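Minutes, project check-in
Item: structure for the 1626-residue chain
Input as provided by the requester:
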Amino acid sequence: MSIWSKLINFNKSGNQNNVAENAAAAPRSIPDYAIIDIEVGISDKRIHDIGALKHNGSVFHKASKEELFAFLNDVDYICGHNIIHHDAKYLFSDKECRQTLVDTLYVSPLLFPERPYHKLVKDDKLLSEQLNNPVNDCRKANDLLLDEIARWESLPREKRLIFASLLRGKAEFEGFLSMVNAEYLDEGLPESIAGLYDGKICRNADLAMLIDRYPCGLAYALALVDTTDYRSITPGWVLHTYPEVEFIVKLLRHTNCHSCDYCNTQLDVLHNLKAFFGYDRFRTYDGQPLQEQAAKAAVSGKSLLAIFPTGGGKSLTFQLPAFMAGRSVHGLTVVISPLQSLMKDQIDNLADRGITEAVTINGMLDPITRSLSIQRVQDGEASLLYISPEMLRSKTIERILTARHVVRFVIDEAHCFSSWGQDFRVDYLYIGKFIQKYQQRKKCKRPIPVSCFTATAKQKVIQDICDYFKQTLDLDLELFASTASRTNLQYSVIHAESDNDKYSKLRNLIAESNCPTIVYVSRTKRTKELAAQLTRDGYKALPFNGKMDSDEKITNQNAFMTDAVRIIVATSAFGMGVDKKDVGMVIHYDISDSLENYVQEAGRAGRDPELNARCYVLYSDNDLDKHFILLNQTKLSISEIQQVWKAVKDLTRQRMRVNCSALEIARQAGWDDSVSDIETRVRTALAALEQGGYLVRGNNVPHVYATGITVKNMDEARTRISASLLFDSDDIEKAVRVIKSLISQKHIAKAQNSDAESRIDYLADILGLSKREVISVVERMRQEGILADSKDISAYLLDAGNSERKSQMLLERFAKLEQYVLSHIPEESLRISYKQLNENAVNDGIGTSKEKDLRTLLYFLTVKGYTRKKEDAARNLVISRQTDLESTIRRFEKRLEISRFAVEWLYKLASDTEKEGAPGQAIQFSVIELLNKIKSSTRSLFGGLDDIQLEDVEEALLYLSKIGALKLEGGFLVLYNAMDIRRIKDNKSRYKLDDYRLLDEFYKLKIQQVHIVGEYANLMVEDYDAALQYVQDYFQMDYKKFVAKYFKGSRASEIQRNLTPNKYNQLFGRLSARQMDIISDKDSRCIVVGAGPGSGKTRVLVHKLASLLLLEDVKHEQLLMLTFSRAAATEFKQRLMELIGNAAHFVEIKTFHSYCFDLLGRIGNLEESKNVVAKAAEMICQREVEPNRIGKTVLVIDEAQDMGAEEYALVKALMDHNEEMRVIAVGDDDQNIYEFRGSDSGHMYSLAQENGSTFVEMTENYRSARIPVEFANAFLKKIDNRIKSMPIISMNNDEGLVEVTHHQSQYIYAPLVENLLSHRTKGISGVLTQTNEEAAILMALLRKQGVSCKLIQSMDGLRFWNIAEMRYFMKYVDKRIKTSLITEELWNEAKQSTYSAYTGSRSLAYVKRCIEQFEQTNSVKYLSDFKEFVFESSVEDFCDVSGSDIVISTIHKAKGREFDDVYMLISGSYAKDANLLRRYYVGMTRAKKRLFIHTNGNLFNNLNGARYFTDQRQPGMPEEIMLQLSHKDVFLDFFKGRKQDVLALKGGDALTYSDFHLYNLSGTPVAKLSMKMQATLSQWEERGYKVKSAYVQFVVAWKPKDAPKDEAETAVLLADLVLSSQGNDA
C-alpha cells in the first residue's frame, strides 16, 4: 500500500519512505490516470507484452496496442516509469498521444534526494521481484507515483513554486506538474532561491545565469543541497542525463566568493581544519604556511604540485579539501597511490579520528571488505577513495566513478611520472589518459583539478610533472615547494669492514637506544633473516617486505604501530605506509639506492617535531654493487619489451584485438614462469608499448556466462534452487543472492551489452563472494535452467577444414601419452625429472612424446585433481595419484570419449560454417548444447551417459584448450583475468631505442643515483657539513651543474656505469683496446670476431658475458652460450664464476648437443647425438618448442668456425624466432680443422654478412713470441679463402725460436725425442702428432728413456660414462637417491666408496677430475644435471696434464691448449689440402716460446724466421712401441659370461699375453683380440716386434646396440700392449 493510499484510507500521515510529517491532510481531487508498462524484445525491438493499471484498480494485460488504446480511452493521464523516453516511443510510434504523459522516473530524485532514497527505486530502475510481469511493474509504479504526489504536497509552498518554475515546459516534468496542479512564479525566481537556500549556498552565485541555462540541472542541484545527510548523492543516471548538475552544485556550494557567510565558514580551511581534525592551525615550514596555501588552492579548485618533506603533513593537505568537498558537493576525491600499505595506514589513521569517509579498493582486501568498499563508494558514504594505477583498468572502478561526482584526482608519489624521478612508473602515464576519458564520458564543463604530491623532487622532475599535465589535460599546476629540511634529525654514516662487523654495529646501536626503530635492508630475503637474528639475540624484531602475504604484512605493521614490537626490519615498501610519530631511530643496514629514497626513508624518524631522532647508515664498499645487481635484475630492458611486442604480434596474427592474461603473454614472449613479478613486468612492457603507440590496452576483460533468466520471479527461483540436488544448504543462500541481484536489476534482460553488471567479477564485488563461488553458482543455475544459456563459447580449431584434422591427431597423441603417464605412477609416488620421464616414454614406444607435452599434461592433471605434483626450479618432480588407478583411468577414459565427441562435433560445425562462406571463423557454441548432444548420442563407448555432468564437458573442453587442440574464448575462461589488447602498428614494425627513451633515461639516472648516494656516504664519513650541503645542492641545483660540481673529469663517465670504479677496473681494467671495443659494442645485432691464436678469445668471451650481465641489462635467463665441447662449457662457467661470483651459476652455458637435447626433452648423450641439432632447429621453425625455452636476447657462440650446416640452421632458427636477438660469435677460420665432420667457417662468414653485423679481427697475440708468430704468418699465406686479412702481431717481448729439421728417414720418432731431451727447460713441452698411434709410440719411447709424460687420451668408441669407475659412482648415487637432488651427504658417501673401491686404479684420476669440475660449476647438485654432464663428456675432457713437463697429444686434441715449447712430428705423405694446412697451423700456434718441427716433407721450407736443419741419419723404429686397444681391437662377444673376472681388474693392473688372448695374473683369460688386431700384431711380428707386456687401460660397460632392452650389459677390457723388438732394423 502506498503513502497516498494510507493517507486516503486511514486519514493519518506517517514518515515511512521519507515522506515528510507535514504532508497535506487531504489530497486534491484524483485525476483519471492509468499506469502502463511494456516489455520490448532486446533484439527485435518489438512489443512482446503490455500491462496497464487504472487508478480505479482495473487491470489490462495483453500484447495488443489497439486493445490498450481502447482501455485507456477514458483517462487523462498516462503514467509510467521512464515512459517518455522508452514506452511512449514504442506505443505512439505511429499514433499521436492525446493524453498527458507523466513520468515517475524524473521527479523521483527531486522528491526523494535523501538517503535512503525511495525503497522502490534503485538508480533508474524500479525494483521488482518478478521478471517480465508488466502488471506487477505497473503496481510498483503506481505506488511510486502516489508517494511522489504525497511528497510534492508535503513540500513548503515556496519550494514547490521554485521547482515548478524551473521545470516548467520540460517534457519529462510537465505531466507531473499538471497532475499536481503546480503553481509557478512569473518573476523573482533568483530572489526566491537565494532566500530559501540562504546559508546553504553562496550568496553571490549567479542564479540568473543558471536559471536561464540549466533550469533542470539547477532543480536537481537544489534538491541535493537541501539534504541533511552529506552521504546522499545524485543518481548516476541523472548525472549522465544532466551532466551540468555537478558543475552547478560546485558553483553554488564550492566556489568561494570570500564575502558571504556561507563561503567564509563552509569554505574556510581553518574552520574546517578544526572541525575535521581538531587542529587550530596548519603546520609551517621554516615559517612558510605552505600546507595552508596548498589546501586553500585545492578548495579554490586549482591544480597543484606540492613538495613536502616526509612527515610534512602532505596527507592532510589533500584529505581536508576532500572532506570539505564531500560535505559541500557530496563529491568524491580519488587518490592514486602505488603502495597499498600507504592506503591502509591513512584510512586507519582517519578512522582513529572518527573519520570514516575514506575507503580503499585494492588487492590486499578480502572479498567481503572489497564488496563493502565498493558499496560505500556507490552509496555516497565515501568522500575519499584510494586506488592503485592498475585499478584504473578495472571496469568496476570505471563504473562506480562514473556514477559519482569526482571533484579531484590526487596523485601521490608524483615523481613516478618522470624518468628523472627515483621511481619512474610507466603505468603512471596512463593516469592522464584515464582522466581525459572520464571527463569526456561525464561531459565535464570544466577540467577536473589534480593535486600531485611528492616528498622529494629535483627541478627536472618538477618540470616533467608540470609538462605531463599540461600536455595531457591542459592543466597548469601551481607549485608549493618547501625548502626546509628537518632540524630534529641527526645523520651519521658508520663504515663497516665486513658483514659480521656490520651486524655487530647494528646490534650495538639497538642496544644503546630504547625506542621504536626501523632497520632498512635492500632485499626481501634479508628482512626475515635479520629480524630472526636480532630476535635470537634478544632484540625482538619483525620483518616487512612487499612480497609477504598480505595478512602477515598487516599483522607485522600493526604490531609495530601499536608498540607490540619496537624493531621492524623492512624494505623501502614499508616506508610509504608508516606514520608513526615516535620512531627514534632509522638504521640503513643497506644504503638506499638514491638520495631521494634515503631522505624519505630516514625521514620516517622523528615525525614528532619535538623528538630528536638519529639516522644511521652502516656502509660497506660492496653495498653499491648489490644495488647495481638488483637494478639489473629488476629493470625492464628494451629486449624484454621487444619480446613482449613480438608476443603481442604473434597473438594478434589472426585478429588485431585479443583478450589474454599477463601470464599468457609472458609465456608467448618466452619468459620463464620463475621470473619475479612476471605479471607486473608484462603490464609495464604493455604500458611502454601503449605509450609508444604500438597498441591500445583497454579495460581488463572478464567473460559473460549467461544471457537470460528463465524464472518468472524470485519465488520460483528460490523454489527451484532449494529443490535442486546441485545446491547444498550452504550454496542455496549464495545462489539466491546472485539470482536476486540479477532479477531485481533486470540487468541481463535490459542491459545485454558489454557493460552489463551481471559480469562475474562485478557480481563478486557487489555480493562479497569470491569469483570462484559466483562462477560455481552461475554454472549450476545454468544447468538447472534458471539462467538461460546461449552461444557462450567461441572455439578456434587447429586448421578447421584441413583434411589432416590436426586437433584430432593432437588429441590422440596426448591420449596415448596420458595413458602411459597415469599407468606409470606407482601407488606411493613417482620421483623423476621431466627429461627422464620423456626419455622413458620415448624408449617405451611413445615416439611422439615431448617434454613440453608432459609439462602441459601434468599441469592439467594436477589442476583437475588427478594427481599431486611437487616441482623444483630444475623441473624435477614428485608425482602421486589422488585416487586409485582404476578410478583415475575410468575418469581419463570418460574425458577422452567426451573430447573425441566434442572435436568431431566441432569439425562438423566448422564445416557447416565454411559452407556458409565464413571459413576460419570462430565456432560459436553452447556448453549445454554440447552436453545435450553427447547425452542424446548413441555412439558413445560407455553406457552410463546420464552421469555426464556439465563439469565433465567443461573439463574436456579445458583439456582440449590446454593441449592446444582448441583455442577457447568466453565461458569458463572467466577464471583468468584477461586484458583487452588491440594492436595498432603492423606486424613488421619493431620497438626501437627511440621508443625506449623514457625508460632508458630513467635507468641511466638510477645508475647515477646509486653512485651519488655512495658519494654522500663517503662525504658523511669525512665532513658532516659538506655532506649536508651536497644533499641540499642535489635537490636545488640544476642536475647537470650538480654533476659537474661533484664529479669532475673521469668521474663523470664513472657514474654512467652500473659498477663501482673498483669493480669496473677488476673486470675490465686489463683488457686491450681491441678487446674493449668488442665488450663495449652494445648495438650490433651480430658481432663476429675473427680471433687469431693467443688473442685472448676465451678472456674476451668471459668478460663479454660479464659485461652483458652487469652492464648491458641482459638477464641471466635471457642469455645463452653454445660451445662445441662440454670441457669448453665447463671452463667458461668456471672462469665466469671467478669473475662475477655465484650469479654465473644461473647462466645457461651448454654444448650445441646438450641444448638441443634439452629442447627435445631428452637427457643428452654423445652416442645418440646424431641429427639432434637438425631436429631441434626444425622443431623451432615449426613452432613446436615452448617459447620460454628459446626466448633469448643474446646468443654467444664459441669456436664459431666449427659450425656445420646443422648448427648454423639452429642459430638461424633462434634468430628468426627472436627478432631482436643479438649474436656474438667468436672463432678463427684459420683453425677450422673439423671439416671431416661437417664444420665450415663459411657459416661464420654468413653471420658477418647479416644486417647490423660487425666483423672484428683480433690479431694481437699475447701468447707467442715474435719469431713463432712471424713463422705462422708466413705459413698462413699458403691457405686460400681466408676470412681474416690482417697479420697476427706478437705482443710478447720474447724473440722466441723456430727450428725446422728435415729428415731423410721414414722414422723420425727417435730424433724428435733426442731433440726434446736436449732442449728441455723448466716449461711444459707439447709433443704433437697427427695420429693416435704416433702419440702412443712416442709415449712408449719417452717412458723407455725414463721420462715422465702424459698422454691426452682419445679412442674410438670409448664413452666416458661407460668406464667402470664412473659407472660405480653413478650406480651408488642412483640406488640411494630419494629426490631429484643429490644431498651433500650422499655425494660425499659416493665419492668415498668409489675412491676406496678403485684405490690404485689409473682410470680413477679421470673420474676424480670429472667430480671436481662438476662440484666447481654446480652449487646445487641435481641428478639429471650430473647425468647430462657425464653423458656429454669424453675421456680427454678430464685428462689432467698439470704437474707434467711433457704432454703428448694429437694436433686435434691439443686445440685450445698452449705449451712453452712445441715439438711437431709431421711425417708421411698427406694430401696438402687447406684442411691439413690449417691443422698444422693449429699445431704451430700452440707454442709460446719455441717451435720445433720434425718432418720428412717440404711443406715448411723457406718460411720467415726459422732455422733449418737437415738430418741425414736413417734411424729405425723404436725398440718399444705401445698399442692402445679400442673396442674394435677386441672380440666383444668373448666378454659375455666373464663380467666378474673383468670387473675385478683396475686401470694399470698388469696382464699376461699369449696367443692373441690376455690373462689376469691368476691365469684366467679376460680378453681376446679381434681378427683385425690379430692381423695387426702379425704384421708387427714380421717386423720383429712381439708383445712384451700388457696393462689394463680401462674396464668399460658394453652391450650391442641392437640388443634387447632387458639384456644386461657386460664388462669389456681395453688394454695397452707394449711391443718390443730384438733388433733395431725393423
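Outcome recorded: The chain has a mean pLDDT of 84.
No further action items on this chain.
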